[in-house]
Write a structure and sequence with these properties.
Strand order of the largest sheet: 6-5-11-12-13-10-14
CATH topology of the domain at 4-70 and 103-161 and 243-328: FAD/NAD(P)-binding domain
Order of helices and strands: EHEEHHEEEHEHEHEHEEEEHHEEEHHHH
Structural class: alpha/beta
Radius of gyration: 20 Å
Strand content: 15-25%
Number of helices: 13
Distance between the termini: 50 Å
CATH architecture of the domain at 4-70 and 103-161 and 243-328: 3-Layer(bba) Sandwich
Largest sheet: 7 strands, mixed
CATH superfamily of the domain at 4-70 and 103-161 and 243-328: FAD/NAD(P)-binding domain
Helix content: 25-40%
CATH class of the domain at 4-70 and 103-161 and 243-328: Alpha Beta
Amino acid sequence: MTGSAVVVGAGVGGLATAIGLRRAGWRVTVLDRRDTQERYGTAFGIHPTAQAALDRLGVGEAFRARALPYRDGLIRSPGGAVLARLPLERIERRAGRPELLISRPYLLDALLAALDVPVRYGSEVKDVAALAAEHDLVVGADGINSAVRAAAFGRRSRPRHIGTVAWIGIAGFETGVYGETWGRGRFFGMTPIEPGRTNWYAAVPEAATAAELRELFAGWHDPIPRVLSESDPASWIRYEIRHLYPALPAFVHGGRTALVGDAAHAMTPNLGQGACTALLDAEALTRAVAAHAAHGPDGLPAALHAYDAERRRNAQRVAFGSRTLHRVMNTRHTRLRDSLVRLIPA
């Protein structure tokens, strides 16, 4: 069975889903409430499993053309002492390929280039039932405040604040010092992003202004103060970290609605898996739809059931792990935490 699908949301998960459905022979409409594709954001870390999903969607080559490997990251104390190595080498040994970093706009460019239908920007969805009446499949890829999720499951599972503010930005130089620095109740991270620039991110209990953020990291090891002093605050992005709680009982509803990405399992950013899980969701959903195409009218409900069985527990496990890591990284009991981190195998 093939038919008509509407994908609500043109972020990473929505675009990847639309590409997969088109490859499976579906007629696809993509709606996005924004007026245009926003080119903000910083580096995504793409795990080898998500890279393989991009390959299966036909986007791997374009993605790798703008990505770079991430092989050397350390966990440090604010004074600069090395606590542990990030498990990047272990990931590469097991998968046979490295973790790759890519700027968010570049990943979106690669996905948009592979999509052969236009995105209908400026289309805010207020009546999900009307969409369902017009299409065989409705895919909610509309983020943490998903209208599709609310229509399918109500508002018991909803965004929850965790009391932490995140800041992200780009420094106009290469620091050569990458990884994360864990302090008391706050942390700071740096990764490569492209030649001549460094991606940085920070999480603090509260910081309303750039001056306050700089003050919170004054005295930390080089080059953290320099990164903040030489970055343009006008380009920084500030947001309150939220996650979806409680976990949904399913990622599908009524045999004709599916959720992917943050709409299904929005998580804290600590494991850096938001984009990866969205890509894995999209590829698994569209692969299941294609596999059940010959089953007639019963094909779509069976496909959605297969998708839910493959992805829900895995994605929710990652979300739980990320939330747990957030507590560890932001704890004020740093002596015990740092002692435990030093036990992580090299």
